[in-house]
Amino acid sequence: MALKALDIYKLLPKKNCKECGDPTCLTFAMKLAGGKADVDLCPYLDDQAKSILGATTRPPIRLVRVGVGERFFKVGEETVLYRHEKTFYHPPGIVFRVSDAQTSDEIAAVTRRVRDETFTRVGTDLRFNGIAIENTSGSAEIFAKTVAAVEQQQAHLPPVLIAKDPAALSAALVHCGSYRPLLHAATGENYREMCALAKKHGCPLVIRAATMDGLIQLVKDCTAGGVQDLMLDPAPENLGAFISRSTQIRQLAITRSVPELGYPVYLDASLTGLQDAAMVLGIVKYASVIVTSPLMPGPAKASLTLRQNIYTDPQKPIQMNPGLYRVGNPGKDAPVLMTVNFSLTFFTLQGYLESSRVPCFMLIVDTEGLSVLTAVAAGKLSETLVRDSLKKFGVESEVTHRKLIIPGYASPLSGRIEEATGWKVLVGPRDAAEIGEFLHEEWKNQG
Predict the structure, then answer these.
(1) Is 64 helix (H, G, I), strand (E, B) or coil?
(2) CA–CA separation, 34 vs 28, rounded Å?
(3) Considering the entire predicted model, what is its pTM?
(4) If you compute the radius of gyration of the chain from its CA atoms, what whole number of angstroms results?
(5) Are residues 266 and 158 in the same domain?
(6) Residues 164 and 123 in one domain
(7) Separation of alpha carbons 216 and 194, rounded Å
């Protein structure tokens, strides 16, 4: 179990020397308890105390890196069972699978898609993470040629190599061993050979067993063999089994009840029989690497969107920087629309404004990322905030009129905003989809 701050304090030298960067040992202990400091910052800890504190203050799930270069991704280092407790940190890598039995054109098409396809949502570019190459042919030579062909696409994508035969993996690693591929998978029968390959090439290794005892034993065997970067494949026979086992792994890891299970979880979504459902539940229920057949456009966007939502800090809404934004090339007579800095609100409104083809200004005020309705209810959106924002961002120098369009849900503030700013307030629609019609009809009538 994780130590509390006072328990940690008892193990510290209590010198209050400030050499760790904190004013007192108690402050340092509180940071250690919250996972915000490293025990190595204290120069006076003895080896025994370091060993105890290191085991209890480091994240309960090991951080594992897959791939190299710009497209590498990290998984693990999670600290909570439920997202609302704190946040989830490292989004799962979504990896498209190809087979060495496919044609070169088919493999190239999937590789290009993972390399080039980007889905932009609320200002963030969302991508798939890598290519999984499976040795279904049973031939080490064909497998190696397929891996080489993927690498020749200049994709620089994190690879996952899937093979039952260590000899096939050995042949493939000749072509990508320096790219830190994820190797799948070590079992009770082949773990010695798999560990030797992972250690030789510095690769993370998936271990596969259908029971907790089997996984625990493989972790002990592989770490004893010198491989520290591991992932756990609970070998689920169906989706229900995955949810049960991954949840159990997470609980035992987070509580440090079974430290050997403190590693990221691997899921092959296509083996569950319900691939789209497996994608959803894998993202929500603790999968760190999800291997899947190439997704259709709809499920692909849904998966990327869900992953972004789940791995956003629930206590810190995605925000835009407050300011004055232009849509098109607005002139001095262009409308000015005020709204909040919640990213989803910003990009939704911006999209409809662009579709309306009416050049305009967007005045984004700082409501700490809250939506319009929430900001009004919480008092974060007020007439003084609007007044100060008009002045701060120099809106008066950009337009000759003094008319401000506010969101429909902010209508209770319209009179107070007029009094505070001296601007005439027009109450826009509640639904952003109606803003184009509003501008074409209501705004033109105001002119």
Answers:
(1) strand
(2) 10
(3) 0.78
(4) 27
(5) yes
(6) yes
(7) 17
- The residue ranges of the chain whose pLDDT is under 70 are 1-2, 35-36, 54-57, 155, 272, 446-447
- How many independent structural domains does the chain possess? 3
Measured CA distances, 341 to 11, 93, 347 (Å): 45, 29, 10
Residue 430 domain-assigned?
Answer: yes
Domain of 422, in residue numbers: 323-446
Q: How far is CA 300 from CA 287, 337, 435, in A?
A: 17, 34, 30
For residue 111, give the 3-state DSSP assignment: helix
Tens-place pLDDT, residues 151-179: 887 768 999 999 999 999 999 999 998 89
Under DSSP, the state recorded for 333 is: T
In this structure, are 262 and 144 located in the same domain?
Answer: yes
Question: What CATH number corresponds to the domain at position 351?
Answer: 3.40.50.11600
**CB atoms < 10 A from the CB of 277, how many?**
13
Asked if residues 231 and 266 have their Cβ atoms less than 8 Å apart, the reply is yes
Cα distances (Å, whole numbers) of residue 219 to 17, 208, 224, 229: 40, 10, 8, 10
pLDDT of residue 40: 77
> Which DSSP state fits 2?
P
